[in-house]
Amino acid sequence: MWLIIPIPKTGISPVFIDPCYYMQFTETQKFRQWWIWVIMIATLCFPAIAIYKEYKSFDFMVYLIGIGVPLLIFILMMFVLRLETSVDERGVHYRFFPFHITTRLKTWDEIDKAYVRVYKPIVEYGGWGIRFGFGNGMALNVSGNVGLQIEYKTGKKLLLGTNKREELEVFMNELYKKGLVKDMDDNSNIKDRY
After folding, report:
1. Which among 47, 73, 142, 191 is placed 20 to 30 Å from 170, CA to CA?
2. For residue 88, what are the contacts with CB-CB under 8 A and spacing of at least 6?
């Protein structure tokens, strides 16, 4: 089914748009886990105790520089860091702000396979954030243990974490049906099956 969008009073012919082109999966994730705050506060307690033992008094400037500045930097990073992921018929768009200033696009022509999978963040990649796993490629993840695994035609791999597993699986199934991308079990174009 095509949408016809008339362009009034311009003399230009109507534009025919395939509405499926506008199918898009979008997700933004931020670091908001309570346990990260606990670890940070516990980590800052050690310098506070060390400073107190060294000077045997409370010097506001020493505490401000030794604890206040790192705490402020941590709080700012927690509110600024975010993983933005978008998947559409052109490919996969992602950005881990502020490390990626611009959004990166990997087209389906560059991608061999893409599929949603469960993974072990600590075992496979050493945690969350921008991570590199041995044999697993790179991971950009914020929380959870589900991600979009991308295998490039060059052999490299990228895993983008998601908290919207069901929504992403439904979207990827639509892309498989259209033959735009292969899933993990298919070595041929999935469109050939239908």
Report:
1. 142
2. 21, 22, 23, 24, 25
More confident residue, 136 or 113: 113
Contact between 164 and 27 under an 8 Å Cβ cutoff? The reply is: yes
The 3-state DSSP class for residue 55 equals helix
The reported pLDDT for the residue numbered 17 is 44
Highest average pLDDT, of 30-34, 69-73, 117-121, 189-193, comes from 117-121
What is the arithmetic mean of pLDDT over 72-87?
82
Q: How many CB atoms lie within 10 A of CB 159?
A: 24
| Residues in the chain, total | 194
Give me the chain's average pLDDT, please.
77
Residues 103-140: b if buried by 16+ CB within 10 A, e if exposed: eeebebeebbbbbbeebebeebbeebbebebeebbebb
Q: Which of 2, 144, 29, 18 is nearest to 86 (CA)?
A: 29
Looking at residue 12, its pLDDT comes to 44
Give which of 81, 87, 98, 82 is closest to 148, Cα–Cα: 87
Q: State how far the alpha carbon of 17 is from the alpha carbons of 14, 21, 85, 90, in Å.
A: 10, 8, 24, 15
* Contact (Cβ atoms closer than 8 angstroms) between residue 159 and residue 139: yes
d(CA 168, CA 116): 7
Distance, CA of 182 to CA of 108 (rounded, Å): 9
Residue 184: the pLDDT is 65
